Every structure is written in C-alpha cells, then in structure tokens.
UniProtKB/TrEMBL annotation:
GO terms for molecular function: ATP binding; metal ion binding; nucleoside diphosphate kinase activity. The keyword ATP-binding applies. The gene is ndk. This is Nucleoside diphosphate kinase. Keywords: ATP-binding, Cytoplasm, Kinase, Magnesium, Metal-binding, Nucleotide metabolism, Nucleotide-binding, Phosphoprotein, Transferase. It is found in: Cytoplasm. Homotetramer. One of its GO terms (cellular component) is cytoplasm. The lineage of its organism: Bacteria, Bacillati, Actinomycetota, Coriobacteriia, Eggerthellales.
Length: 133
C-alpha cells in the first residue's frame, strides 16, 4: 500500500488546526500509520529542504519549520501521495481554493500549514528523514 510523509507545520499547531486537518485526511479514506508531535531538528530541516539551499527564501524556511512543534505523520492508502497533495492544495495559500487545507487554514507562502511528499520516491526519503533511526 502506498505511503506518504505529511507534516502539520508550526502555524497549523499554533493556530489549533490539528484536529480539523487530521479529520479531513481520515475522511478522505487515508490511514494515519505513525504520528508524533515534536520539533523538527536542524538536521531534519536541512535534509528535507536540501533542494532549496541557496535560494532567497531558504533561511526563512528553515527558521519557520523549526519555530515550534509540528505533527509528523506517515499516511497510507491507495494513491496516498497524490490524494494528500490534492487535499493540501497548491504551495501558495493565496492561490489555494476554498475546501483545500491550505486554502482554508493558510494565508501566505511562508506559512503554508502542511507538507506532503511530492512523489513516492520523495515519500520514502522523507519517511526515512523523519522516522528513520
Ligand atoms: P512542501 O510540502 O512544504 O514541500 O511544499 P511544496 O512541495 O508545495 O513546495 P516546494 O517543495 O517547492 O517548497 C517547499 C517550501 O518552500 C514551500 O512549502 C514554501 O513554504 C517554500 N517555498 C517554495 N517556493 C517558495 C518561494 O518562491 N517563496 C517563498 N517565500 N517560499 C517558497
Ligand atoms: Mg515539496
């Protein structure tokens, strides 16, 4: 069964949206396989966002993702990677339609509520970053 990595980012936790977001994931027929609320370590942040190193928004991105506890999850189900990306909506909440998680709970690109792996290969890599030994 397909697995994806998802993470409720610090703004989602701060704004008390954990329950509503997880309810949407379960209502979509997906299963929460693993879940923990804790900070992202600096090592995890660097590994997860390695592709963005050197970009103008990189330092802000690392500061944001390590700014408070997050909910780290492994989510499974048929087509889980794509299903999660559809539930999330586009990267920029300003462009996300109502009914999507980012459209309903986000306002700006720098604080976009939730992360979901963009492919099965990324999911494997990210599950290892956040849940590997
Ligand atoms: P994630 O689920 O967080 O990986 O988002 P994504 O897959 O929709 O986007 P991507 O992996 O391309 O970018 C990772 C994160 O970097 C995004 O969630 C944004 O917060 C941030 N980001 C990406 N592009 C930009 C940008 O052009 N400007 C700013 N300010 N932030 C960006
Ligand atoms: Mg991404």
């Amino acid at each position: 069964i397909e697995k994806t990595y998802s993470m409720l980012k610090p703004d989602a936790v701060r704004n008390h949206h954990i329950g509503e977001i997880i309810a949407r994931i379960e209502r979509a027929g997906l299963t929460i396989e693993r879940m923990v609320l804790e900070p992202v370590t600096p090592e995890q942040a660097a590994a997860n966002y390695a592709e963005h190193e050197g970009k103008p928004f990189y330092d802000g991105l690392i500061a944001y993702i390590t700014s408070g506890p997050v909910v780290k999850m492994v989510v499974s189900g048929e087509g889980a990677v794509k299903k999660m990306r559809t539930l999330m909506g586009p990267t920029n909440p300003a462009e996300a339609a109502p009914g999507t998680i980012r459209g309903d709970f986000g306002l700006i690109m720098d604080e976009n509520v939730i992360h979901g792996s963009d492919s099965v290969a990324s999911a494997e890599r990210e599950i290892n970053i956040f849940f590997g030994e």
